[in-house]
From TrEMBL:
PROSITE patterns: THIOREDOXIN_2 (PS51352). InterPro entries: APS_reductase (IPR011798), PAPS/APS_Rdtase (IPR004511), PAPS_reduct_dom (IPR002500), Rossmann-like_a/b/a_fold (IPR014729), Thioredoxin-indep_APS_Rdtase (IPR004508), Thioredoxin-like_sf (IPR036249), Thioredoxin_domain (IPR013766). HAMAP family: CysH. Pathway: Sulfur metabolism; hydrogen sulfide biosynthesis; sulfite from sulfate. Residues 332-463 form the Thioredoxin domain. Keywords: Amino-acid biosynthesis, Chloroplast, Cysteine biosynthesis, Cytoplasm, Disulfide bond, Iron, Iron-sulfur, Metal-binding, Oxidoreductase, Plastid, Redox-active center, Stress response, Transit peptide. This is Adenosine 5'-phosphosulfate reductase. Its cofactor is [4Fe-4S] cluster. It comes from Macleaya cordata (Five-seeded plume-poppy). It catalyses: glutathione disulfide + sulfite + AMP + 2 H(+) = adenosine 5'-phosphosulfate + 2 glutathione; [thioredoxin]-disulfide + sulfite + AMP + 2 H(+) = adenosine 5'-phosphosulfate + [thioredoxin]-dithiol. The keyword Glycosyltransferase does not apply. PANTHER family: 5'-ADENYLYLSULFATE REDUCTASE 1, CHLOROPLASTIC (PTHR46482:SF9), 5'-ADENYLYLSULFATE REDUCTASE 3, CHLOROPLASTIC (PTHR46482). One of its GO terms (biological process) is cysteine biosynthetic process. Its main location: plastid.
Length: 463
């Protein structure tokens, strides 16, 4: 793996290949001690020359006895045990509060200053290229790694190449274990995630490779933003002790996670990318916002949230692949309490909508000859996407009140969720069903467009 480092850091690296008796603290000091944050001129040639020299170093994956990590700091045999001084633990909650109103550039500079060669930017091939641009602007050496799942869009691979050439770096790619992928595909097929959820495939193709990568680091930098997923990312701080993964030293608290753009909204990210003439993935011009693997990503429609393009067949509140699973844990606790509180405010309240009980929808589903057709929304009142379509659905009820079509709602979270998944085709909230007059099988609304005109077109085509 080729790294983007400064000339000062490359000398330390070459020295480390003759002996591993140098402590990690001494090495870090030699790498970053001469830099000062934000008050130094940029010198692209430094990174260029050192990057070329670094290519001559034997890659870590060629060493059979080395653990698979993205930090090839030393290749020689350890001569003597290294004694390191005890370092006082930093209060990262306090640091997060201090940096709460700092700019992304300040946060990036602080991260690179504190961790030097032991930190890397996680790059997905989407708009988080902004992180690489901020790192370049600090003038400090930086490293970038990415997870190649083997199922990315061709446009994403082309984008990786553009980024490497633009910044004169080598992205450090991590790949899934070939035998694990082979076992998964042979036993369950290429598209099992459409049937039993994306978590297993993501675990093999993304989470485990990430775990190997992070075991070679003391910190990593992500492009998480609070507005990306209000359900799972609304509370992320700009810096935190990673709640899910371990770093180089192992154990809880051994890895620090930096989120420099946590408080930046998506619109400002794109304004910055355009202003700096930064290369972007061509998929963005085709309606893709959040970009992942090709089978699990699709464009979003105007007005839809960007995460609706990811794993669209699943519950909107679980749209994380596992790389940031600490977010899901926090959210599941909050979501569980929300869905079980008796005083939770209900939605879709209108005299033109029939509120169905469990017994009511069971009877409706069993009837083969109904007096009139029904359109029913399966919803959860805490779901942001259900809340987003409330006005349209209430208007639909108003338009259909004299048409002979009944409009209903069924709250399908909590204890009713398993039944709704098994018997009513619930995949994610909201799910809209049409029950024809002369058929027991409901028809699921297939579109993500939830405006009243689209819903009316669906109903008119079937009634």
């Amino acid at each position: 793996m080729a790294l983007s480092v400064s000339s000062s850091s490359s000398s330390a690296l070459s020295a480390s290949f003759t002996s591993r008796s140098i402590s990690s603290q001494e090495l870090k000091a030699s790498q970053i001690g001469s830099f000062r944050p934000l008050d130094r001129p940029l010198n692209p040639s430094i990174a260029t020359n050192s990057s070329r020299r670094r290519c001559l170093v034997k890659p870590v994956f060629a060493e059979s006895k080395r653990r698979e990590s993205i930090v090839p700091l030393a290749a020689s045999t350890v001569i003597a045990p290294v004694v390191t001084e005890k370092v006082e633990t930093e209060d990262y909650e306090k640091l997060a509060k201090e940096l709460e109103n700092a700019s992304p550039l300040e946060i990036m500079d602080k991260a690179l200053e504190k961790f030097g060669h032991d930190i890397a930017i996680a790059f997905s091939g989407a708009e988080d290229v902004v992180l690489i641009e901020y790192a370049r602007l600090t003038g400090r050496p930086f490293r970038v790694f990415s997870l190649d799942t083997g199922r990315l869009n061709p446009e994403t691979y082309q984008f990786f190449d553009k980024v490497e050439k633009q910044y004169d770096i080598r992205i450090e790619y991590m790949f899934p274990d070939a035998l694990e992928v082979q076992g998964l595909v042979r036993s369950k097929g290429l598209f099992s995630f459409y049937e039993d959820g994306h978590q297993e495939c993501c675990r093999v193709r993304k989470v485990r490779p990430l775990r190997r990568a992070l075991k070679g680091l003391r910190a990593w930098i992500t492009g998480q933003r609070k507005d990306q997923s209000p359900g799972t990312r609304a509370e992320i701080p700009v810096v935190q002790v990673d709640p899910s993964f371990e770093g180089l030293d192992g154990g809880v608290g051994s890895l620090i996670k930096w989120n420099p753009v946590a408080n930046v909204n998506g619109g400002d990210i794109w304004n910055f990318l355009r202003a700096m003439n930064v290369p972007v993935n061509s998929l963005h011009s085709q309606g893709y916002v959040s970009i992942g693997c090709e089978p699990c990503t699709r464009p979003v429609l105007p007005g839809q949230h960007e995460r609706e393009g990811r794993w669209w067949w699943e519950d909107a509140k679980a749209k994380e692949c596992g790389l940031h699973k600490g977010n899901i844990k926090q959210d599941e606790e909050a979501g569980s309490s929300q869905s079980n509180v008796a005083g939770t405010d209900d939605i879709f309240n209108s005299e033109n909508l029939v509120s169905l009980t469990r017994a009511g929808i069971e009877n409706l589903a069993k009837l083969e000859n109904r007096r009139e057709p029904w359109v029913v929304v399966l919803y959860a009142p805490w779901c942001q996407f259900c809340q987003g379509m409330e006005a349209s659905y209430v208007e639909l009820g108003e338009k259909l009140k004299e048409s002979g079509v009944k409009v209903g709602k069924f709250r399908a979270d909590g204890e009713q969720k398993e039944y709704a998944k098994q018997e009513l085709q619930l995949g994610s909230f909201p799910t809209i069903l049409f029950f024809p007059k002369h058929s027991s099988q409901p028809i699921k609304y297939p579109s993500e467009k939830r405006d009243v005109d689209s819903l009316m077109a669906f109903v008119n085509a079937l009634r």
